[in-house]
Amino acid sequence: MPHFEHNALTLLLTQLAAVLALSRALGWGLRRIGQPLVIAEVLAGIVLGPSLLGWLWPEAMGALFPESSLPDLRMLSQLGLVLFMFLVGLEIDLELMRGRAHASIAISHTGIAVPFVLGAAASFWIQDHYAQPGAPFLSLLLFMGVAMSITAFPVLARILSERQLLNTRLGTITIACAAVDDVTAWCLLAFVVAVARSQDLTQAAWTTALAVIYVVVMLAVIRPFLARLGERVANQRGLTQAMVVGALLLLLASSWITETIGIHALFGAFVAGSCLPKKGGFASALSERIETVAVALLLPLFFAYSGLRTEIGLLSTATDWFATLAIIGVATLGKFGGGIAAARLTGSSWREASAIGILMNTRGLMQLIVLNIGLDLGVISPTLFTILVVMALMTTVATAPVLSWIYPLDELMRERARRPEPAEGRPAAPYRLLLCVSDARTGPALASLAAALAQTGGAGREVTALHLAPPSDRPSAELRPGAAAHDPLVPLMDNAARLGLPIRPLTFVSADPGGDILRTADALRADLVMLGAHRPLLAEGRLGGVVRDVMTRSASPVAVLIDQGFVAPRRVLVPYAGAPQDRFALALAQRLAADPATQVTLLHAVAPGPADTDGEGRRRIASAMESGRADALSPLGNVTLKLMENDVPETAAVEESARGYDLVIAAIAPDLEPIWRGLAFRRRRLLTDCPVSLLLVRPSAAAEG
Fold first, then answer.
1. Residues 6+ apart with CB under 8 A from 30
2. Which of 79, 112, 457, 594 falls between 20 and 30 A from 229, CA-CA?
3. Is 312 exposed, middle or buried (0-12, 13-18, 19+ CB in 10 A)?
4. Backbone angles phi, psi at 190, to 5 degrees
């Protein structure tokens, strides 16, 4: 591999491939234990650096990352950082603080002030052991304060998203706190950089004054101008190439100004992103154009460069490791302690306050950016850099498991499902429906069927519509105004409003949709879980994916609507053989038959021949309906019995359904494995050939007896 040194492009491509492959491989494993991708990317850099590869195989590290290639790697990683900080600015929306500014500012500023003071105090002890020789003590003191104060807004947003907390009260408060924290911390860092780069306090004062003028101009002049421009752009179709180039020119100009002033180009990138309009989808569309290259391609190079500068071997004594543990303790005490105290004082419960404290202790990538700036400026030594990198990793790794302990998923589901207490004298809701919508096309039909099933005649009803969004690389974008316009629940809610059916919408991000549907159903104590499916999604007569997961694991009854243009259940067909699951289908038909406009037909197929000429088939079905093992059918005039001679009941149901029915309700047994064997053979024709909408129902196991 030594010849790579003579070909800079080949070497750079090899470095990039190695970094990407290793970070994604580690990310796949770490995400399975609940860790964010940033941890894998940081570890990939450390593995490829002197801490592991350089220790085990120094020749390989020397060939892959020769000293001559590091300047090019650093500049490319800096470009990735500039683009990333621009994205962070795009994701921070001040609208997030609307209605919670008091709590957010109090918590975030306490979460900065307390660790800043503790970090500054720790610098007095660090100075004697780990300070960079010749570094001004004031720069070290200020830098340690900022390093202890930082919160990783992007990593925190991803953790909130993956833990399904993003749209909860806790999530909205925490994300607003992180936004305020980031803005404040980067302003403090700009001041620290100005002091560190200046030769004396007079020059530092001039740099600070120029920085203040720059920020005022950006916020008071450029931001309003861009907001008016964004309103015009919102009416155009999509984001044009000219708009992207204009935004990038603003980014480059802002970064150039702040670097020239002396407060670092990253601050200018952050401010430029913050000034761009968030309404109208402009910021979201621009992020989608930039993030793949910036986050997936260039940013891992920064982690590799940071890993090459991190030498775990520098922590060679017990004193070094004690110092590392002490720094972790100081950082955690400042962020966790300050956050929990401020949250309690602003009215949060102990559980909420503890969760806010641990979330604000997340550092990750933002901490690494700060540490690299400190090392480049000569404020901290390589040993202190390594100690602080370990601190950033440990505090970020601890966030997800501690948060799971403080806020378990079952408790979160119960809080999310909790409704206001009913008004005095209002009866408790006896019938609860959970509608699960993944595709907007299934929503209107589910709403129509729910309205028919939830007829109560004065009794209560509770209908909840659930949409689980897949995890996003930019989860904070979900909070932006206008995101609801693309919510798959919108068609369902519109149809429900036309039908006069009150529905409570519930949307959150989920990496485990099947499990979260089950937890939500349990928290709601749902009487029926309804899902939608489309005929093209059925493979060889089998239901799969989330639908199969819910049907086989749910403690609540489950119904899957395979929509064929369902509008209203005017004529309903129920294939009936008297089995326990058929009696559950009969109970649902009974609810529909409460509407005089609905005609329900119970179809019983009997073998051809003289055996049924004396009405034996009719007596069998009547006996099954009147047996005490299931709800008896009310004597409604709009329910009829029909016998059909056919050896295959499913064939009889398919043939009868073609005679003008709106809906077929077919039941399957609640025991798990036979469901799928039965669907694969006996029920296959119903799934594939039924010409009208089909409601496939599975009672709970308890209902079978």
1. 36, 37, 39, 40, 43
2. 79
3. middle
4. -60, -40
Phi first, then psi: give them for residue 525, nearest 5 degrees: 55, 50
CATH of 87-291+319-407, one of 1.10.3380.30, 3.40.50.300, 1.20.1530.20, 1.10.150.110: 1.20.1530.20
Q: Cα dihedral angle (287, 288, 290, 296), rounded to 10 degrees?
A: 110
CATH of domain 568-693: 3.40.50.620
Those residues whose C-beta lies under 8 Å from the C-beta of residue 229, and which sit 6 or more positions away, are 277
- Token readout for 397 is 């790794």
What single letter denotes the amino acid at residue 355? A
- Contact 411/164 with Cβ under 8 angstroms? no
Tell me the mean pLDDT in the region 615-640.
52
Task: Name, in order, each residue with C-beta under 8 angstroms of 411's C-beta and a sequence gap of 6 or more.
Answer: none
The CATH class for the domain spanning 431-563 reads: alpha beta
Going by C-alpha positions, the residue among 695, 685, 679 that lies closest to residue 646 is 685
How far apart (Å, rounded) are the C-alpha atoms in residues 397 and 362? Answer: 8
Phi (first) and psi of residue 529, to 5 degrees? -105, 120
Over residues 225-246, the mean pLDDT reads 72
β-strands 504-509, 528-533: how paired?
Answer: unpaired
C-alpha distance from residue 269 to each of 147, 207, 299, 505 (Å): 20, 18, 15, 38
Greatest alpha-carbon span in the chain: 110
For the chain, the 3-state helix, strand and coil shares in percent, each to the nearest 5, are 65, 10, 25
Residue 144 CB neighbour total at 10 angstroms: 30
- pLDDT in the model for residue 87: 85
Asked whether 452 and 595 are in contact (CB, 8 A), the reply is: yes
Give me the residue spans of the domains in the chain: 87-291+319-407, 431-563, 568-693
Q: Could you check whether 87-291+319-407 and 431-563 share the same CATH topology?
A: no
| pTM score of the predicted model | 0.70
For residue 149 the two structure tokens come to 């104060």
In terms of Cα–Cα distance, which of 484, 451, 486, 406 is closest to 167? Answer: 484
Amino acid at 7: N
Q: What is the pLDDT of residues 258-293, one digit of tens each?
A: 889 887 888 888 889 888 887 767 777 788 788 878
